[in-house]
Amino acid sequence: MKLIRRQHKRTEKAQVMLEFTFCMIVLLLMMYGIIMILRWTGKSYVERQKDHEAVLTQNVPPREQLETYFHKPTPMNAIWTGDINL
């Protein structure tokens, strides 16, 4: 009886360790994704700010300085564009 209880406790500990490990892997992947999103957002914001400041320092009429289409979006490389052979 005692041997069975000891084995049961060992398997419970092993299961808990595996579940914890998998949860940590998932959390780390989620954190990596959040960091990449924030990085892409910040990069896009900085590039837009640079482009806008370049427009403001040019000798152009105010109407052209207020134009909102002076910036091209930053490519994010967030989508895999490879061929899928089905």
Structure explained in plain terms:
This protein has helices at 2-57, 62-65. It is built from 2 helices and no strands. The protein is an all-alpha fold and 86 residues long.
What sort of overall outline do the alpha carbons produce when their principal axes are compared?
rod-shaped
Strand residue content: under 5%
Rounded mean pLDDT score: 77
Percent of residues in helical segments?
55-70%
Number of continuous helical runs: 2
Structural class: mainly alpha
Order of helical and strand elements = HH
Count the E strands: 0
Low-confidence stretches: none
Which value, in Å, is the CA radius of gyration?
A: 27 Å
Structural descriptors:
2 helices, 86 residues, 70% helix, mainly alpha, single chain
List the helices and strands and how they pair.
Blueprint: H1 2-57, H2 62-65
In short:
The chain is an all-alpha fold.
